Amino acid sequence: MKALEYPFDSQWILKKKKSLRRDLLKEHTSFLKKKIAVLGGSTTHDILLILDLFLLNQGIQAEFYESEYNQYYQDAMFPNERLKDFQPDFIYVYTTNRNITAYPRAGVAPEQIEALLEEEYQRFMGMWERLWEQYHCPIIQNNFEFPSYRLMGNQDGVYPEGRISFLNRLNERFAAFAREHSHFYILDLQYLSARCGLDAWQDPFYWYMYKYALAVPFIPELSFELSKILKSLLGQNKKGLALDLDNTLWGGVVGDEGPENLAIGPEVPAGQAFTEFQQYLKELKDLGILLNVNSKNERENALAGLSHPDAPLKPEDFQVILANWESKDRNLEQIAAELNLLPESLVFVDDNPAERAIVSGQLPHVSVPDMEAPEQYIRVLDRSGFFEVTSLSGDDLRRNEMYRENIQRARQQAAFLNYEDYLISLEMVAQIQSFAPMYLARIAQLTNKSNQFNLTTRRYTLSEIEKMSSDHRYLTLYGKLVDKFGDNGVVSVIIGRREDHILHLDLWIMSCRVLKRKMEEAMLDALAERSRALGIRELRGYYYPTAKNSMVKDFYQNQGFTRISSDEVGNTLWSLSLEEPYIQKNQVIKVVENL
Prior knowledge:
The chain is of the alpha/beta class. The protein has 24 helices and 18 strands.
């Protein structure tokens, strides 16, 4: 729903929240359902109502637990049957600088200040550890906004007695904890309140009247920020951009004016805006975001513009460059197909409102932000949260390289008449092992990002993956794949739950990067071998259809499983007996202990 995308009208959302919710429930046919506990140090009621809207807009339907007013610490540290019965998937601790128990006073000894800082930090850390011990789910914690006044003026952030100094040091302790604990995430309240304007954000009227620690008009800003973290943890991030060129990456029309006359570089004000936008996109690329061109242009003109000496982006920074006169919705579908992604994995960026309207109309699940003024391009993309970072693995940083290698593979495939010969030519080597600590973050990420080759579409948090990896009731496997073009990283995951002599396959996923490479056969061979060693006599596979995973509808049948049952909506149950001799399927991938 466009009204819930950045930039949004906060006052209108607050006014229309009930009707918006009704419309969202009608608009989506299915939701990912999650339980979220909000432990608040001040009033949180409307925060939950607006958060609910942003999550519904992402296809996530939340059930909420809300602590009583300012009972966040008690709910975390003491027995709480209601929260225990709720069993949250996520916990959000909403605290602000009003929840600091004591600040340093002028003239106290440095060691007293250190003790006060440590005491405050230990109070929060004890709470996080207690919550993790009880619920083993991701915890999101606010850091602290600046105070509304400075007793020491401009030196308040300099002297240890100053409140700004104290809060800055406490925020850094929180950040260090987040760096060291993969289940813990910071919502940057300090940045958000500064961005919105500290005086307006902390308008004391709302505290005195309603015990809201932020002004009610800014509740949508806070809720949207929280929704970005949650949808990222649930694998709802976008993977790349499909970018227009003329008046989007540079000022002017390259086909009419020539590359030498484009507004890019330091010579003109507009050129500076486009240069900074390109620099921002290049930094996104460094984080693993895939850049692509979707432009109505002659290809040679497009390449000439991208080769401009003042342009930070060059042709080699892009995965797919489609510069032609086809409709942009068709081009976007082609880009997605070449990357082996769904179109909704991409964000379409174009200055032309007519082109944006066409793509939105033809591909309603594709995000199409309003890009009106070049000087606002970075702000719109950045604040939309399409690529919110909650983890950053080596595979993320190598994603552009991996996709470029895939394009090389596709080109090599075109040179072979026989597909098996092509696969053999890739010289593929795989490592298939039980879950290992070094790969748990990537495994959790893959479970939340894989949509097409995902038989049950179950999602797991890192904490759940960690628990299953050490639980003897589960058989877990990950698969890494390397070939002569490069390392694909961890590309496949299986989670099986043991029940007597049956292994129930709760999850089987594979990255779209390695579709049709026979990795599924290598994984099944390893699964069968390990299952038989554990005395398992039957594998049970489940397929639950979604709008995105129809490609694996017949997967179990193709792997030799027998269908046991099916229902009216297409859910199917499959069985493979391991009591009979198992015939190895993989003929093209060499499986080794270590890569």
